[in-house]
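To whoever is on call:

I kicked off a structure prediction for a single chain this morning and the downstream step that reads the tokens threw a length-mismatch warning. I double-checked the sequence; it's 119 residues and nothing unusual in it as far as I can see. Pasting both halves so you can look.
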Amino acid sequence: MGKTDVECCDVTCVHNDAVLQVLKKMPPDELLKELADFYKVFGDATRVKILCVLLEAEMCVCDLAEVLGMTQSAISHQLRVLKQMKLVKNRREGKTVFYSLSDSHIQLIISQGIEHITE
């Protein structure tokens, strides 16, 4: 058996106490779907790059496009997704719109993800 093979029980035996305890604490399906959708946003390398840039500094679309070597249109499209999922926020200063991470939770998610991968 390889290192990544999953081992199964040799007999079928449901541990009802454990099952009932977990079922009582399981979040509703709708909340779990929202959580899955939240993590899907992190499945795109461009969106993750944008979040990493915004982890360092608040930036406008022009600056993000320059840092990432992409078009403003491509950046705007991804920012729209990130904003819909409440991962980034924006503020207007004159004719310029600056983007930043929504809150410290996003910073924590990114840094913990990087820490997990580099362990």
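Update from on-call: the warning came from a stale cache, not from the record. Cleared it. Sanity check on the structure: DSSP finds six helices and three strands in the chain.
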